[in-house]
Amino acid sequence: MKLTLDPGAAALLDTLHAAGYAAYAVGGCVRDSLLGRTAHDWDLCTSALPQQVMELFGAEQCIPTGLQHGTVTIKYGGQLYETTTFRTEGSYTDGRHPDEVQFVPDVREDLARRDFTINAIAYNEAEGLVDPFGGQKDLQNGLLRAVGEPQQRFTEDALRILRLYRFAARFGFALDAATARAARQLAPHLDCISAERIQEELAKLLTAPQPGAYLEPAVLAVVLPELTPAALDAAKPVVDACPAGEKNLPVRWAALLRSLGESATRRVLKRLRCSNVCIEETAVLVRETAGEGVCRSFSEDRPLGWDPAAVGSRAGDGMARLVSEEKASAHPGDIHLRQILGRYGLCTVERLCALCAALHPQNAPDCALAAQRARQLEADGVCCRVSQLAVNGRDLMAAGIPAGPALRRVLEALLDGVIHAEYPNEKPALLAAAQKIIAS
């Protein structure tokens, strides 16, 4: 079988071969190429020792990223290529990193140390695939299987347990029975893995297309002990119903942890060293969907003038048309939508709609309409925030309203009045309303 190599990887392999060294593309880039996917990171392995690699390509082109483990990163064509000497590994005292490595001349010995058969395939144009453990067949069969003895692979590095479920979820693969059994049995060893690495693997797992089936209870009991088995079972179909992808990670986190409530969700994500942005967004989603929450307003309160039959009728953007903006703005559903749009922004509103649709599939069409409505409100510049009012603090002070907390309260009251269609978002009307608010 012939694979199309990345041009930079091909050039580096040619240079290594011309110097008399064995060299291959290896691991994920080969796996993804065999699956017909675009490979982004091209890793190389070679019989050349790290010092020989650096001598061959020069100090300016090489970054000595891990010489003790045989790794040199080569800069070529604006890209980085991690290049590692064939090696075997000694014992893993810490359950995560090898105590020592030994450089070897044969790529097959190097492949034998890797985690899963689908990642233990090497390739160059002269020899084709080097696949001593049947990785290509496992790819064809949609099977994830450990290289060699699963117990040994997971005992060496417990992080491989999480990688097992992450890769399986990413590709929708079945788990080899012996590999899955060993992962469940050795899941307690995950307590030696840093919170950052656990979070990284869980995030990749949660952004997969359908991760529910790969949220293994034995594993989650160790890395997310706050989540009860019953809560996990209930969360799985909701997680799967949420949109996939990195952008929607907070939605998936909220779907998984929602039973814990806002405070406990914050504590869990903080313990896992999630970013502050992710923690805050997930907490908002959990808070706003608690109980009836915002989901009810999406599913029961459609604004007047919002015509579901017209969805897609507007050329270009596929939005439903607005029959009467002024009347619509006074409707309870539209009021709430504008309030949360002003409070959180469009991205959060779209995520709330997605989570509500996952929680209440029967109301998914209404949630989709709410998201479309929010996008249209944003595109039309409909007033949802104090900053969109036709007056600002300077205008109010010029009209005699003193600076201070009262000024902010007046602005917020004006916004509330505009959203409730008590008066138009026009400067004369707002200034008159402000005087009435101060006088009351």
UniProtKB/TrEMBL annotation:
Q: Where is the tRNA nucleotidyltransferase/poly(A) polymerase RNA and SrmB- binding domain?
A: 172-217
Q: Which domain of life is it from?
A: Bacteria
Record-linked PANTHER family: CCA TRNA NUCLEOTIDYLTRANSFERASE 1, MITOCHONDRIAL
Q: Which GO terms describe its molecular function?
A: metal ion binding; nucleotide binding; nucleotidyltransferase activity; tRNA binding
Family, similarity comment: Belongs to the tRNA nucleotidyltransferase/poly(A) polymerase family.
The UniProt record lists the Poly A polymerase head domain at 23-145
Which organism encodes this protein?
Faecalibacterium prausnitzii
Key words, A-Z: Magnesium, Metal-binding, Nucleotide-binding, Nucleotidyltransferase, RNA-binding, Transferase, tRNA processing
Per the database record, which ranges form the CCA-adding enzyme C-terminal domain? 385-434
Example GO biological process term? tRNA processing
Protein's recorded name = tRNA nucleotidyltransferase
Query: Pfam families in the record, alphabetically?
Result: PolyA_pol, PolyA_pol_RNAbd, tRNA_NucTran2_2
- Cofactor(s) demanded: Mg(2+)
InterPro entries tied to this protein: Bact_CCA-adding_enz_type3_sf, CCA-adding_enz_C, NT_sf, PolA_pol_head_dom, PolyA_RNA-bd
SUPFAM superfamilies tied to this protein: Nucleotidyltransferase (SSF81301), Poly A polymerase C-terminal region-like (SSF81891)
